[in-house]
Design a protein that fits this description.
Structural class: alpha/beta
Strand content: 5-15%
Number of strands: 10
Order of helices and strands: EEEHEHEHEHEHEHEHHEHHH
Oligomer: single chain
Low-confidence stretches: none
Mean pLDDT: 96
Radius of gyration: 18 Å
Number of helices: 11
């Protein structure tokens, strides 16, 4: 199943996320995911595992042109020239000449001038054919609206925290208005399972009841919920069985009533950090050269 971005580029709806995957395990995880059938890998400069992603892709034997590679620039590389160099570092670590989708990892609210310059650098990379699509991550409505007003290319994607307990419906509506693809990180609510959350989405009675009707898991139901809404998802796992389970969601369909009952689980409570709290003072770190 593929989705079409606002510039005509297509991407596989399900990708493998490698957030918090240790660098030494990344190559194995990526190669295994590609063996299972994944053709979309999501990483980031700040994950410090782009090199492992590149190694896994080369080890898989799958042709480069058949794999959609997505990565993100970190806030330490914002600004025009810094962002251009950030691309060079990521491309070299991944071992590719062209990146399929390049995102700004955070809005950097406190220095949005640098964010805008970094985005303009990505517009140049797009024009030069070094990237096939550009977008953002963790942009809330106010800053997304400002970005649209002050730049030329409408982002193809906004990658945001989105799972049954935190659905960001206002932001999704803004995406739809501007033909920006909503891409969900923590799409199966993994973030609700750690960090002392009140309850885990994997143990939700509504999700487990629906899962039981299809002989599926709660995670599979959540992924199906996203796909039927036209969202892109990047569940993360390093376990082969879990990767295969997350990919096995194309043989059943949720009913309108089931979708409505999942929609009703929204708590409005964010699991990850508030994007406005991500500042250079708190989160700035040098991204190493390739």
């Amino acid at each position: 199943m593929t989705l079409t971005l606002n510039n005509g580029v297509t991407l596989p709806a399900i990708g493998l996320g490698v957030f918090q995957t240790p660098a030494e395990e990344t190559a194995t995880a990526v190669a295994e995911a590609l063996r299972v059938g994944y053709r979309h890998i999501d990483t980031a400069a700040a994950y410090m595992n782009e090199q492992g992603v590149g190694e896994g892709i080369r080890a898989s034997g799958v042709a480069r042109e058949d794999i959609f590679i997505e990565t993100k620039l970190w806030i330490s590389d914002y600004g025009y020239d810094a962002a251009l160099h950030g691309f060079d570092k990521s491309a070299a670590k991944l071992g590719v000449d062209q990146i399929d989708l390049l995102l700004l990892h955070q809005p950097l609210t406190s220095r949005f001038d640098l964010t805008l310059d970094a985005y303009r650098a990505m517009e140049k990379l797009l024009a030069d054919g070094k990237v096939r699509a550009i977008g953002v991550s963790n942009f809330m409505p106010e800053l997304l609206t400002r970005l649209l007003a002050e730049t030329t290319v409408v982002p193809a994607v906004n990658q945001i925290e989105l799972h049954p307990y935190f659905q960001q419906k206002e932001l999704q509506a803004l995406h739809a208005e501007h033909n920006i693809l909503t891409q969900a990180w923590s799409p199966i609510g993994g973030i609700t399972s750690y960090g002392g959350g009140a309850k885990s989405a994997f143990e939700d009675e509504t999700l487990l009841a629906i899962a039981g009707e299809y002989g599926k898991s709660a995670a599979q139901v959540m992924l199906r919920w996203h796909l039927q809404a036209g969202r892109s998802v990047i569940p993360k796992s390093t376990k082969a069985a879990r990767m295969a389970e997350n990919f096995d969601v194309f043989d059943f369909e949720l009913t309108a009533d089931q979708i409505q009952s999942i929609d009703a689980l929204d708590t409005g409570v964010r699991g990850g950090p508030d994007p406005d709290s991500i500042t250079l003072e708190s989160y700035g770190m040098p991204i190493p050269e390739a």
